[in-house]
Design goal:
A ten-stranded mixed sheet has the order 11-10-9-8-7-6-12-13-14-15, covered by helices on one side. Strands 2-3-4 form a three-stranded antiparallel sheet, with helices on both faces. A two-stranded antiparallel ribbon has the order 1-5. It contains 16 helices and 15 strands. By secondary structure, the chain is α/β, with parallel strands linked by helices. The two termini are 29 Å apart.
């Protein structure tokens, strides 16, 4: 017997107890200090109580190598089969132009060729979708720039996207800054809207310091009206707050605002936290950025001080939230990057990209769908084959099945290779997560 190489063992933050998580065996347990010592120091012939050894074996923390390798292979094949059946998210960017001048925009260096999305190009996009994804469940996400600009041309483009989506019977999501959302409610109602994602970076004063119109005018109040209008129309809303050190302290106030508005009690309202980080070029204020771990440490501190935040947003802390809410671990995550598997992106220049993190970067294009169809099959294969089995640094990492190798685009930007890891602080997040969600048990 040996220790499973998928054991994640550490001390619960602020506690004398330890935890063990093993995504491959599907077990998670609180351990005494003695049990943790036996598990972390285990070697064949370790002198320990038979009951402890038997329990650790039964839970899959102590294994026979050949049995674990077989379980890994079977789980991986199951994962690949499920991934091949996943619904595909198709992003379409009708423009990169925007009416906002956000302080942290990563698209501010994108060029905008003097051309527009046309009905002919959109028809070609849907013809490509009909052919290439004929046997896959799929939905469309309209992305930008800002796709809901208040111009006659833009409204006709969105109308055409809605009409063509209806022809293929596919749902629509929209990622918008929300400023002109009110003006689009009746048009969007002609399609099947799955979700509207809108960003608010805090309450009025803070938000307006970060997300303002070109020229500096505030944007908070029109966005709030747009959220109200979307919910009233029955459109599910995904409210996103992009956080860095400039607005993190405003999280309790934004949570209280959303609760008072009645948003959080609405069955079609949800939230997410976005971490402001360097994507394609250096931020003007890198000292204001959180790491993934430091962000969630700060959120934990704030939720301890202001418990009402949990009504607005409950952090995942890796797999901790899932475990707390479902009483079991999620399936092993062999791949956290959906690019060229269950996610593709397309834009009004007729180019094809792997995902939203690469769309708009001409050098990252994988081919074209208009005016002709072309594909870089070698590069597509590289994206499509990226998972923890193809990333050498992931193969012997204990947290690989919770991390999944991270984001391929971030990894490429940082390391120069798609087949490199974007590592996540899984163990450290679990230390906080067990403290956050299992305090009563502890």
């Amino acid at each position: 017997m040996i220790k499973s190489k998928h054991n994640i063992v550490s001390r619960v933050s602020g506690s004398d107890q330890y935890f063990a998580v093993n995504l491959l065996s599907g077990n998670a347990d609180l351990l005494s200090e003695e049990e943790a010592k036996v598990l972390t120091a285990f070697e064949e012939g370790t002198n320990a109580e038979a009951e402890i050894l038997q329990n650790l074996t039964d839970k899959g923390y102590l294994v026979k190598p050949e049995s674990e390798n077989k379980r890994f292979r079977n789980s991986y094949f199951d994962f690949v089969d499920q991934r091949d059946e996943e619904e595909v998210q198709l992003f379409f960017v009708p423009n990169y132009s925007c009416n906002f001048s956000c302080s942290y925009c990563y698209q501010d260096e994108y060029t905008n060729p003097n051309q527009h999305a046309t009905p002919e190009l959109i028809d070609a996009f849907f013809q490509y979708v009909r052919k290439e994804f004929a046997n896959r469940r799929k939905y469309l996400t309209i992305f930008g720039g800002e796709p809901l600009l208040n111009t006659p041309h833009q409204k006709e483009i969105i109308r055409h996207l809605v009409e063509k989506s209806n022809e293929l019977a596919i749902d629509i999501c929209v990622v918008t800054n929300g400023y002109y959302l009110e003006n689009y409610i009746s048009l969007l109602a002609q399609g099947k809207i799955r979700e509207i994602q809108i960003t608010l970076d805090g309450t009025k004063k803070i938000h307006d310091q970060r997300r303002f119109l070109k020229g500096g005018s505030p944007t908070f109040e029109p966005i709030v009206r747009g959220i109200d209008a979307a919910l009233a129309a029955g459109f599910p809303v995904n409210l996103r707050m992009v956080i860095d050190k400039q607005n993190i302290e405003n999280l309790p106030e934004l949570a209280a605002f959303a609760i008072e508005k009645g948003w959080t009690s609405h069955p079609i309202f949800k939230t997410q936290i976005g971490r402001n980080y360097e994507l394609h070029h250096c931020q003007s204020t890198p000292d204001q950025l959180f790491t993934r771990l430091s962000l969630f440490k700060k959120i934990f501190e704030l939720t301890e001080q202001f418990p009402h935040i949990k009504e607005f947003y409950k952090p995942s802390y890796s797999v901790s939230k899932y475990l707390a809410e479902n009483g079991e671990l999620p399936d092993p995550l062999f791949d956290a990057c959906p690019a060229c598997k269950s996610e593709w992106a397309f834009d009004y220049t007729g180019r094809i990209y792997s995902c939203t993190a690469t769309v708009g970067k001409e050098e990252e294009a994988l081919g074209t769908f208009f005016p002709e169809v072309t594909k870089n099959e070698q590069l597509i294969h590289q994206w499509a084959s990226r998972d923890v089995t193809s990333i050498e640094d992931c193969r012997n990492c204990a947290v690989q099945l919770a991390c999944g190798g991270g984001c391929g685009s971030v990894a490429k930007n940082k390391n120069g290779s798609i087949l490199s890891p974007d590592c996540r602080p899984v163990k450290e997040l679990l230390e906080i997560g067990f403290k956050a969600y299992f305090t009563e048990i502890i």
